[in-house]
Amino acid sequence: MPDARVQAAIDNWAPRFTSQGVDGNDFARTTARIDTWEEWLPSWVATGDEHRALAEEAEAAGRTLSAGEAWVRGALAYHFAKFVWVLDVERNHDVTRAARDALYAAHRHLDPSAARIDVPFGDANLVGNLRGPRDAPLVLLLPGLDSTKEEFFHWEDVFLRRGLATFSFDGPGQGESGFATHIRGDYEVPVAAALDALDWPRPVGAAGVSLGGYYAPRAAACERRIRAVAGVSGPYDFGACWSGLPGLTRETFRHHSGAATDEEAREKAHDLTLAGVLGGLQQPALLVTGKLDRVIPWEQTERIAREAPNAELVLYEDGNHVCNNIPYRYRPLVADWLAEQLARVG
């Protein structure tokens, strides 16, 4: 019988795993052998290791496509091993590196043009993955609290197929960038640093999911180089959501925010607010959410759309958090909309 945290992870995020590319059979057999939260990370690492072995076997046989596909599956398994698992920081970091390395192995086979971009940021470096044509409009893909660039390979492909380039960005407190940085509410500051590092010659848009659905509108409201923005299931005020958040989400925020106590984490959550900011969001904005969202109430995203001067709201009656139970509806919508908006200004 799974313990409460294992069951919560399954109940809250199962559709996310499969929509991001985890095979449904992998999800079923991996979670079936997990009874305690302590077992979550090593069980998913074992699944990642299986795909790593398949990738290495395919490489040895010269089957580069099969190798690349297996490396992507491995990267996702390693990512979801630690995505909200913060019981041991060193193990979390080790598996974060394993996910990163597996994805870069996938890039070598599936997209050799992909490039790792280091973004100078004070005493630290932030990191992102750049894919797609260098002469195309660019979409910044902004993860949420527990997502990272390693989760976005298939999400990137949705934009790449529409002729756009993508930059999946681990900002402060996210993925490997979080080894030396913490979450900050003024996400426009790291986004500006990323845009400086990229110096992109074509129009730039941004799309964020979950807490990234806060980061993207926040950045666009303060950064005119972003010409259009989409946010999916983002909070208007993360602190106002605190009491209703899953316990694992609160634990993960405490870790990534650098808070020493639960109370300090709750106080830091209130720093992530769009109050008084959205008047600056003059660019076209698309806000998407689902009425069945159990993580960020849909009314939070609706408020962003209501206060932004040039925003459109899409509310799916049957959508859950990030609408991951209906990815075939929200993903093409967001990608098509951004492609159209950037073409108008390009």
What does it look like?
The protein has 346 residues and is of the alpha/beta class. 48% of the residues lie in helices and 15% in strands. The chain has helices at residues 4-20, 24-32, 40-60, 64-82, 89-110, 153-160, 188-198, 212-222, 247-257, 262-269, 298-307, 327-345, and strands spanning 115-121, 124-131, 138-142, 165-170, 204-209, 226-232, 285-290, 311-316. An eight-stranded mixed beta sheet has the order 1-2-4-3-5-6-7-8, with helices on both faces. Helix 6 links the parallel strand 3 and strand 4. The longest helix has 22 residues, at 89-110. It is globular and about 50 Å long. The termini are far apart. The mean pLDDT is 98.
Order of helices and strands: HHHHHEEEHEHEHEHHEHEH
Name the shape in a single word.
globular
Largest sheet: spatial strand order:
1-2-4-3-5-6-7-8
Q: What percent of residues are in strands?
A: 5-15%
Helix residue percentage? 40-55%
* Count of runs of 4 or more consecutive helical residues: 12
What would you call the structural class?
A: alpha/beta
Largest sheet: 8 strands, mixed
Tell me, rounded to a whole number, the average pLDDT: 98
How many E strands?
Answer: 8
Cα-based radius of gyration, to the nearest Å: 19 Å
Contiguous uncertain segments of 5+ residues: none
End-to-end span in angstroms?
55 Å
Question: How would you summarize the topology of this molecule?
Answer:
Elements: H1 4-20, H2 24-32, H3 40-60, H4 64-82, H5 89-110, E1 115-121, E2 124-131, E3 138-142, H6 153-160, E4 165-170, H7 188-198, E5 204-209, H8 212-222, E6 226-232, H9 247-257, H10 262-269, E7 285-290, H11 298-307, E8 311-316, H12 327-345
Parallel strand pairs: 3-4, 3-5, 5-6, 6-7, 7-8
Antiparallel strand pairs: 1-2, 2-4
Helix pairs in contact: 3-4, 4-5, 7-8, 9-10
